[in-house]
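Weekly sync, protein design subgroup
Attendees: M.S., D.O., the rotation student, P.L. (late)

Item 1: inverse folding check
M.S. brought a backbone from last month's batch and wanted to see whether the design step gives back something sensible before we order anything. D.O. pointed out we never logged the input encoding, so this time it goes straight into the notes. Structure tokens as presented (192 positions):
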């Protein structure tokens, strides 16, 4: 299982490193960049494939706090599969991760949301690593078991303020959620 995870991480990192930076000018790296097209001086097709290169250096990630467990596991597997490498994660939030890539302060920006048009226009590209879920949770003593998206929207916009309005007890709804600027909150607001 660890071997599969390591291989998957290598593929994801290769795609992410190629896709999460600016397209105008590549940042300096400690490992040679792979080319999708053969170079002008490529060897004839009959030449044997070169041995896999040993990786070294640091892969730095910055961004989404909701990806902490996944990135931690992937980073550990990557370093185990590639001795001599370092994998770092700075949990600063989705917006900060995107900004860090844009400013060249990290290799991979982690985000809980899709890139905005302006970010794409600035040369950033996205690679989906995983999808995370957003859950609505109520107190176990609350009889409400199902809410529609419309009801959730009405609750979060203040149109519904009492549980009795959605089949619950006569009690004020107290909302708890992510802070403004959170990628998870941004995703929630797009859905609702």
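Designed sequence read out in the meeting:
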């Amino acid at each position: 299982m660890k071997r599969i995870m390591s291989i998957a991480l290598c593929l994801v990192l290769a795609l992410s490193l190629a896709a999460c930076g600016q397209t105008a000018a590549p940042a300096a790296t400690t490992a040679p960049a792979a080319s999708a097209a053969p170079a002008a001086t490529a060897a004839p097709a009959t030449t044997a494939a070169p041995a896999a290169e040993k990786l070294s250096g640091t892969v730095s990630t910055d961004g989404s706090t909701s990806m902490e467990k996944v990135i931690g596991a992937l980073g550990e597997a990557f370093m185990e599969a590639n001795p001599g490498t370092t994998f770092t994660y700075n949990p600063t939030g989705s917006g900060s991760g995107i900004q860090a890539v844009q400013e060249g302060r990290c290799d991979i920006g982690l985000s809980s949301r899709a890139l905005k048009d302006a970010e794409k226009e600035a040369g950033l590209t996205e690679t989906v690593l995983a999808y995370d879920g957003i859950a609505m949770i109520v107190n176990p003593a609350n009889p409400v078991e199902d809410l529609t998206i419309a009801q959730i929207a009405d609750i979060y916009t203040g149109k519904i303020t009492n549980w009795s309005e959605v089949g619950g007890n006569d009690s004020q709804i107290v909302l708890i959620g992510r802070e403004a600027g959170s990628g998870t909150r941004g995703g929630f607001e797009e859905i609702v």
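Discussion: Residues 144 and 167 are 6 Å apart (CA to CA). The mean pLDDT is 77.
Action: P.L. to compare against the previous round before Friday.
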